[in-house]
TrEMBL record:
Keyword list, A-Z: Signal
Name of one Pfam family that matches: OMP_b-brl_2
Organism: Flavobacterium pygoscelis
Full protein name: PorT family protein
SUPFAM superfamilies per UniProt: OMPA-like (SSF56925)
Record-annotated Outer membrane protein beta-barrel domain positions: 38-207
Signal peptide feature range: 1-20
Keyword Signal: yes
Amino acid sequence: MKKTFAILFFLLLLNGYAQGSKNIFSKDPIINLENFQQKKIYYGFYLGFNSYDFKIDYKTETPDILVKKTTGFNVGIIADVKLQEYINLRFEPGLYYTKRELNFPANPNFTKNSDALREVNSTYIHFPLLLKFSSLRTGNIRPYALGGVSATLNLSSNAKILDDNLEQRFRVKSWTPNYELGFGIDLFSEYFIFSPSIRGVFGLNDELIRDKDPNSPWTGNIDSMKTRAIFINFTFH
């Protein structure tokens, strides 16, 4: 139900934007916000969706842990500083909600069906610092690429809890560093800029906190577990 309402919201938003910005894709458009690119600093906000995954490497060959992904929600703000005519530095702190299910392969140590399933509910505060490389503006359209680094604080990591998977607690580290790559497009309307974008996020370090038992059926054979994610954001500024 939440997904349905979110999708309807964005469809209505995009429809309203299209109705008020028909000249963006016309042959000879009226140039909107012509002096906007001259601003040294500007601000905005974004809403969007995410899909988080784990990249898991194993110590020995074994059946894979299956990761069931869901669609999460993003919201945040943007501060943008112009460094050069086509290069901007952006800080985009935001709040990200997501959920993953880990399905572990059958193990004789599992005494009940729930032992093979772990739900990883995550609430992230995400701190990306990105460089935005814009192309030449054509009418009211300007594509761009962006990339940079980020740090993520997982408020639901269970990192400080002593219980482990024997007590149904799956634990990961609170902080993780990442690098990010993506692209998008600036669409200039009469009053604001709408920028849809897509971005890949790649965790750099192992996030897993191992169980106390080194031979744990949940964590014993995992060499590293790193975040992988896709963000689709709709930015307004």
